[in-house]
Amino acid sequence: MRCYDARFLSAYKFRGGYHLRTIFQEALQKRLAEVSVDMIVPIPVSPDTLAMRGFNQVNGLLEICEIDDILCCISHNKSVQSLKTRQDRLNTAQPFMCQLGNLDLTGQRICLVDDVYTTGRTLRHAATCLYECGAKQICTITLAR
After folding, report:
1. C-alpha of 106 from chain center
2. Contact 94/127 with Cβ under 8 angstroms?
3. What is the DSSP-derived secondary structure letter of residue 75?
4. Rounded to whole angstroms, how far apart are CA atoms 17 and 36?
């Protein structure tokens, strides 16, 4: 994917720049078109983060895509990843659970989408939930690393 100045992502995610999502959408949509999956699943934010930020930054990036919002945060006050050390991130307990309703993930190929990949722990936690619910294959796409 095309490289973007980190200031745009920071302004988008941490300073309420929801309008900046459109800068990233085209590149993300092109990458998603290259993968063969049954479902696109965004990484969720906690209710506290949603209340503070006013939006889920990953959902904003994916607003032009069909998504399945089936992951939710177990904890209402999931700690802020950007304030953790690498070791703290790696030791993070499972923050997610699946809320499937009538969906059956058995045999599904899923693309998990997140905004930033640092240690990969968030994506691994999410993938574990989805595999436990029957997913066959999981790929991941992040906007930045």
Report:
1. 21
2. no
3. S
4. 31
pLDDT tens, position by position, 84-109 = 787 777 778 889 999 998 999 999 99
Cα 75 to Cα 72: distance, rounded to the nearest angstrom: 9
pTM: 0.85
Instruction: State which amino acid sits at residue 129.
Output: C
Q: pLDDT of 127-144, one tens digit each?
A: 999 999 999 999 999 988
H helices of 34-108, in order, are: 47-53, 57-61, 86-90
Q: Please report which residue ranges of the chain form alpha helices under DSSP H.
A: 6-14, 21-33, 47-53, 57-61, 86-90, 121-132
Strand 71-73 relative to strand 96-98, pairing: antiparallel
Residues in the chain: 145
CA 50 from centre of chain: 13
